Write a sequence for this structure.
């Protein structure tokens, strides 16, 4: 029931874990010069409000519980929850262990995924966390700035023992969080998948790619499909795990001036994305999301078409795998599908065809 407003850190669990404590009289034996364990495990942060706080909750020790909190800010650089500690992880090989992050809600403008980890984490339980009313996931973030010593942002020499009349410089705020990568951990059953690449080996920048699939999403769809709001994520990986295609098709209604965006199909049963510009993301100029879930089987047909690519394909790169997400980037709703084509990729002169039945 506490409120935190305008702070650098709302609640910082184990605030000395990654800080140099040399100026303090710590009785613990340092595991590295200036660094000791902070013994701040098993803390609970529940049911609080964080407003305009740079870091709502920072977790740097084990078995912390952060649940039922609300994070609100107008600054996209702000972070709701940040898990991870640097020095203990790198020197002792002990990343933050068994955190529980559940049932938190965030409304941080310009940041759809404000729950982040840094410096690795193990055994984190991440359940039912939301951002602007949609379920979201946990992904890697940006390490927080740290001063030279514990709770210190700067050191200024004092000639003659007289403290200089200067203000302590504040630590820089983090950069706006980059997007989480598109992933599909628990996706839909997918069938009738086709991935075709044409014009391979010809002129650079003239390859064409087409992806088609039918997704059987678990119904009823909650929240409902809405690519105008969420956009679509599309990833193609080779056998080495390298992302041959990694595209985030943005949301937004069609803009005739920019010649890009989403339109509702006349049948009202789906949407179509069009981009007629030379700088279309990943060369994707056409996306079709046809919602047939009213039939009762949660069926959704997806088509992605791209042009202007240059794809290098060899037998050693096969098989490929493809992921499409209708709730990118982490698809906590399950509105995504990933398929590996196993032995169903055929490389022919100028053409690659991958398919499933």
């Amino acid at each position: 029931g506490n409120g935190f407003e305008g702070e650098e850190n709302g609640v910082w669990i184990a605030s000395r874990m990654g800080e140099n404590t040399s100026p303090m009289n710590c009785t613990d034996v340092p595991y590295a010069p200036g660094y000791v364990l902070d013994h701040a495990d098993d803390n609970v942060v529940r049911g609080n409000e964080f407003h305009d706080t740079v870091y709502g909750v920072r977790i740097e020790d084990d078995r912390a519980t952060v649940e039922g909190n609300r994070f609100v800010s107008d600054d996209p650089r702000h972070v709701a929850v940040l898990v991870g500690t640097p020095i203990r992880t790198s020197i002792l090989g002990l990343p933050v262990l068994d955190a529980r992050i559940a049932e938190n809600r965030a409304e941080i403008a310009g940041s759809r995924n404000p729950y982040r980890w840094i410096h690795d984490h193990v055994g984190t339980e991440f359940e039912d966390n939301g951002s602007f009313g949609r379920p979201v996931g946990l992904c890697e973030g940006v390490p927080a700035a740290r001063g030279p010593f514990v709770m210190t942002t700067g050191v200024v020499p004092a000639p003659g023992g007289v403290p200089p009349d200067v203000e302590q410089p504040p630590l820089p705020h983090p950069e706006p969080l980059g997007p989480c990568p598109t992933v599909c951990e628990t996706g839909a059953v997918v069938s009738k998948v086709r991935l075709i690449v044409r014009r391979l080996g010809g002129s650079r920048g003239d390859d064409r790619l087409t992806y088609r699939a039918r997704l059987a999403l678990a119904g009823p769809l909650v929240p409902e499909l809405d690519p105008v709001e969420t956009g679509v994520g599309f990833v193609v990986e080779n056998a080495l795990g390298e992302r041959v295609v990694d595209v985030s098709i943005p949301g937004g209604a069609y803009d005739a001036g920019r010649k890009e965006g989403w339109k509702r199909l006349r049948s009202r049963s789906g949407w179509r994305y069009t981009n007629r510009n030379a700088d279309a993301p990943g060369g994707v100029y056409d996306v079709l999301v046809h919602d047939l879930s009213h039939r009762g089987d949660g069926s959704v047909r997806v088509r992605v078409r791209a042009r202007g690519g240059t794809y290098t394909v060899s037998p050693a790169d096969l098989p490929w795998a493809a992921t499409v997400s209708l709730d990118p980037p982490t698809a906590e709703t399950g509105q995504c599908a990933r398929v590996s084509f196993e032995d169903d990729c055929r490389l022919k002169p100028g053409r690659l065809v991958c398919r499933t039945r």
